[in-house]
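Can anyone check this?
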Amino acid sequence: MKTEGLLEAAAKASRKAYASYSGYKVGAALLCADGDVFVGCNVENASYGLTVCAERTAIFTAIAAGRRDFVAMAIVADGDSMPYPCGACRQVLSEFCREEFSVYIAKASELEDYEVVCLAALLPHQFKMTD
């Protein structure tokens, strides 16, 4: 899948977000090695600690489907700044993705102006239980 298609899948997922508290709708599209894509959106809750980010929704959906072969992720959101993943999402990505895993980040209004960064740059000193 081309980058533009992955970004569009994330943008489409963002429109399904349940963001009734923050109004900040985020979508993520996770690309597997064989071209399959798993999407996720953020789902908020009145108890903010129970909110789940789009990135983790996509990863957990893929894991539940038995997948572990992740290549890249696109993250798209409305707003004035680029929607970089939160610390929790970065750590979850590091559990299942290689350091060179590509993350494409874009504003929903400007999909063509995306940024790409590898996971190692997003989380240079990830927590690991084993070497």
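Reply from J.R.: I decoded it. The helical segments are 3-14, 54-64, 87-96, 119-122.
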